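REQUEST FORM: STRUCTURE PREDICTION
Request ID: SP-0412
Submitted by: Lab K.M.
Chain count: 1
Length (residues): 372
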Amino acid sequence: MKHLHNTTIIRQTLTKQKYDSKVMLTSKKLDSYIEGTTIAPLFFQGDALTILKNFPSESIDCCITSPPYWGKRQYRTDGIGMEKDYNNYIDSLCTIFRELLRILKVTGSFWLNIGDSYYKKNLLGIPWRIALELTDRQGWILRNEVVWNKIKGGPDNALDKLGNVHEKVFHFVKSVTGYYYDVDSIRANPQKTKIVNGSVISATGVHGVRYKRQIELSTALNEMEKQIAQNALNEILNQVRGGKLADFRMVIRGQQRTTHSDSTKVSGRAKELQNKGFYFLKYHPNGSKPRDVWDILPEDTQNREFHYAPFPEDLCKMPIIATCPIDGIVLDPFSGTGTAMLVAKNLGRKSIGIDLCAEYIDMASKRCATLF
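STATUS: Completed
RESULT:
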């Protein structure tokens, strides 16, 4: 018995030494990568939670990930997504996301793509269960719920429900203010106003002259309000001529309706229309910012032998460009075949990928033309 006891102690000691050695190696690689200049991705193979515990606090600028969905697929290795109870799945993910909260910078962002699942024909609402757990219990701040419209979803042969063709992408931050967000870098090219014979014609076809005429003929504005409106319109037209605005709309009391609500209790614009007699909708010279519905085709899986849930590159681009500075680091704790790492590298950012499956790490490394 004493011999067996001693053997157990020796095994525990060797296991601890092996673990400590792996931790030191992981930390050393991390420190070297963070301080270095290469943008070649760094990959770690192993359990995400275990590896993340070795990361320094507030060391990552942007995390974008799409973890395995619950009960959807059998991946190369067992792990998250294979739990018998979806509540255990949610708990496992949220434990990892709590660690992300520690290692993400105050200026950082966390983008989570997560799909839903059915159980006994009941749509479980897993994405929102996770989102509410993160906001209510961990202190994350949810800035956007993006709907990823997959345009052409996979076949759905169910005869008693609609086809599912969208997934959620949540944008979380740690602080109400001060997080990095370069909105100008993701604006769409704007439609431009035209200057014809000195008159401004908006991209929506409205003439500055037409607004002036509406003000002059208005029976809903008094003389002082008309003068104030004319002066404000002239200033807006000068901003358009000078390239400070791409376009505008003018809403005049008695001529146009408010754009959202006529109630002054819920709409600031309705209140402005009541008090001033007009307001402007101004269009940024660099274009409009993206909306929260993204039309992105799923990745083609026909030529994929091993991984059947590849992350579309286009789904990664906007989050990385907008919320990771050029000298920042992108992290994907469920990196799969390394799409987020590939996009980050192409955009000139450092990146770190973690995956439980050694084959996926090898595939991702080769895909990014990087071997560690």
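NOTES: Residues 11 and 301 are 44 Å apart (CA to CA).
Reviewed by: T.R.
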